[in-house]
Specification:
5 strands, 22% strand, nucleotide-binding, alpha/beta, two-stranded antiparallel sheet
């Protein structure tokens, strides 16, 4: 799948609630919106391309800029494209993004993910991530 260009509304339903998420693309024109919407958010979900090694330093910089203003905002990182041969292992992503430096008071989770070709099959890790995100949002609400 292609990276998000612009804005994308996402709705996740669980047994007892429905949550709305705003996905904002990572390209330069949309970065100015990140902080404005993040200040109203309950958690940050940050998606990084595990196979794009050259852009990981830039991703690290932007991630740390986003989280520095709110030291308790929960963070969920999706290390996407784990199915590609060139993808960094999850431990390499942890190191490349300096996730050990996000703060001791912050709940932080890192998931290795991939999108299936037709998008119909939801891997179990994504179901686990969905459940976790629902719980984090409920805790922060």
């Amino acid at each position: 799948m292609a990276p998000t260009q612009g804005f994308n509304a996402v709705c996740i339903s669980t047994e007892d609630s429905q949550m709305e998420f705003l996905e904002i693309g990572g390209s330069e024109p949309f970065r100015s919106y990140w902080e404005m919407y993040l200040s109203k958010g309950l958690l940050l979900i940050f998606v990084v391309d595990s196979a794009d090694h050259n852009r990981l330093p830039e991703a690290k910089k932007h991630l740390h800029q986003l989280i520095e203003t709110n030291p308790i905002l929960p963070l969920v990182v999706f290390a996407n494209k784990q199915d590609l041969e060139a993808a960094y292992h999850i431990t390499d992503i942890h190191e490349a993004l300096a996730l050990s430096e996000v703060g001791n008071d912050r709940k932080m989770f890192l998931f290795g993910t991939q999108v299936t070709e037709n998008g119909s099959e939801i891997p179990s890790v994504m179901q686990d991530a969905k459940d976790l995100i629902a719980q984090l949002a409920a805790d922060m609400h």
